[in-house]
Amino acid sequence: MLRYRKLERVLLQNHPELHERWVQARIAEDPAMLGLGDLVLKDKERIQPRAGRLDLLLQDPDAGRRYEVEIQLGATDESHIIRTIEYWDIERKRYPQYEHSAVLVAEDITSRFLNVISLFNGAIPLVAVQMQAFRVEDDAVTLLFTTVMDELVRGPVDDDEEVQEVADRAYWEARGSKSTLEMVDELVAMARELDAALEAKYNRFYVGLAKDGQPHNFIVCRPRKTTAMVTIRLPQAAETQAKLEASGLELVDYDRREAGYRLRLGADDLAQRREVLREFVEAAYRSHAG
Fold first, then answer.
1. What's the pTM?
2. Are 55 and 71 in contact, with CB atoms under 8 Å apart?
């Protein structure tokens, strides 16, 4: 028969054995205990130029995201918050090919500092995790991690569709040119080969796709005077990046807000690289449909 046992809280800040390095080692052994996903250890005590050492650098190998983790025993304080943000900023600038999240782990995240941290959220992807230690046996303890503030998740471009100002083809003809709109027409035609119910949707900030009146933006186009900026909405992946770089298309970057690869297309791309473009449009359609 199972017995009820009240857990005994163990405070770590001044504990003679369970110090910060001990906590760091436990998380390094099993990063999933933080509750942030199936993460792997990339580095610990990572030297930061002129800024000390980062406690832990964790990585989600599937999502291409890194987590800069700082641990503090006891209550949060100003210097620890600043250090967490500083290390996150250094790492994201050194390795811009990844998405980065700053993670603050502390025994006591007070309401005052939670309010301070929340001011940064939205500008900085900041996660606050409260850590508690409990004695489970006379000679054994366990750690419990609770996310008390998660990073703000931004909606994709089509989530804001209902508040976008409606435009029409004439609006984009005035902003771009006939030739760049023809490039957009060809991309829309590729999409319609996959689903004949798709149609171009003209908004003031982009030309997207719609199906039965609802946004279906697996490709997003912004015609310019001589080129068209096109976002192919696919998850960020090393294999996709390599294919795009080898395709001859001009890859600008990965747009995290729109969750897609931004390409700068010229007239030659539609003439010479139509099939590779078709391949990526179809991949985005399959990904968006799934």
1. 0.55
2. yes
Domain 157-289: give its CATH code.
3.90.1150.200
Which of 80-84, 116-120, 257-261 bottoms out in mean pLDDT, i.e. has the lowest? 116-120
Of the candidates 278, 15, 4, the residue with the CA atom closest to the CA atom of residue 143 = 15
**Which candidate, 233, 143, 144, places its Cα nearest to that of 187?**
233
CATH architecture for residues 8-149: 3-Layer(aba) Sandwich (3.40)
Q: Quote the CA–CA distance of 257 and 166 in Å, as a whole number.
A: 21
Where along the chain do its domains lie?
A: 8-149, 157-289
Strand bridging mode 219-223 / 228-232: antiparallel
The answer to whether residues 108 and 75 touch, using CB atoms and an 8 Å cutoff, is yes
Q: At residue 226, what is the residue type?
A: T
Cα distance between residue 183 and residue 205, in whole Å: 17
Report DSSP state, residue 34.
Answer: G
